[in-house]
Amino acid sequence: LKKKSKQWEKEANPVNLSAVLGAGIMGGGVAFQSALKGTPILMKDINQDGIDLGLSEAKKLLTKRIDKGKMKPDQMADVLNNITPTLNYGDFGNVDIVVEAVVENPKVKDAVLRETEDHIGENAILTSNTSTISIDTLAKNLKRPENFCGMHFFNPVHMMPLVEVIRGEKTSDRAVATTVAYAKAMGKTPIVVNNCPGFLVNRILFPYFGGFLHLIRDGADFQHVDKVMEKFGWPMGPAYLQDVVGMDTSKHAGDVMAEGFPDRMSHDSKTAIDVMFEKERLGQKSGKGFYQYE
Ligand code: NAD
Known about the structure:
- It comes from Tamilnaduibacter salinus.
- In the central section; belongs to the 3-hydroxyacyl-CoA dehydrogenase family. In the N-terminal section; belongs to the enoyl-CoA hydratase/isomerase family.
- This protein has about 290 residues and is α/β, with parallel strands linked by helices.
- The protein has 2 domains: about 5-195, Rossmann fold (3-Layer(aba) Sandwich); about 200-285, N-(1-d-carboxylethyl)-l-norvaline Dehydrogenase, domain 2.
- About 45% of the residues lie in helices and about 15% in strands.
- The protein contains 12 helices and 8 strands.
- The chain has helices at about 25-35, 50-65, 75-80, 105-120, 135-140, 175-185, 200-215, 220-230, 240-245, 245-260, 260-265, 270-280, and strands at about 20, 40-45, 85, 95-100, 125-130, 150, 160-165, 190-195.
- Strands 3-2-1-4-5-6-7-8 form an 8-stranded mixed sheet, with helices on both faces.
- Strand 4 (about 95-100), helix 4 and strand 5 form a beta-alpha-beta unit.
- Helix 10 (about 245-260) packs across helix 12 (about 270-280).
- Nicotinamide-adenine-dinucleotide binds near residues 22 and 108.
């Protein structure tokens, strides 16, 4: 968060073209933000439906900006022209940085990262938006692990200013510096963190969720807790936040945190998240979580 740039930050490669793998919630958001702030981006998915979804989300966000008077209608085409949708790696030879944002599955990510490495230049930087997989694990099968690091955005990408840049064991200063510079060019606030379960933000957020889950087990009303935290000044309370994140994602990340920090982050009995997950009450994505959305 320091404003003064450090010596290693000067090692950044210029970023004239970027690419994102996956046009889903996060990949679509990364493409939109990069395009909006002026770095052209290739957006790759495995099927046209994925691409169409990513593009329609970008159009929706741009329309909202125009409606709010934050952008002129004729600027919309310029932003959209900065996003090049693709189903293959054809143009990846010219990219300076890639953000991998495919499904949170280590095997899929491993295959996607290795294939990408074969199509990008030797100096290009490869990053992953993983929330829970170790950066060193993902780097293990790469030919150039020094060019690889984490670039962890938060949801929704266009609204959340922070980006965690995660340095793995073999990550070079150049990779970190380029990723930091790209995050800044996207209008974000990057922080450089070491690789560990939860990186930094989830190490803060999950103990907070843990406190909330204990409170409701002790009989507190979740709506009341949400209101209290909103009055405290947070944009939303913990129950609503869990609904936005999704019980499946939250449970998975919670399990990773408990495994990484058993003394601090494990629960001695089932939590409300576990129960809702079992009942497929996943939050906003399924229409029902703590709150009802149907
Ligand atoms: P998502 O399911 O919305 O999108 C994943 C996309 O990847 C889909 O469009 C899918 O078609 C595509 N895909 C799958 N295999 C691919 C391949 N081989 N090549 C190209 N595209 C492929 O998922 P998401 O929520 O956007 O999550 C993506 C990543 O971001 C995950 O690693 C997740 O942990 C991380 N993340 C998610 C959030 C969140 O709140 N959703 C927040 C931070 C980080």
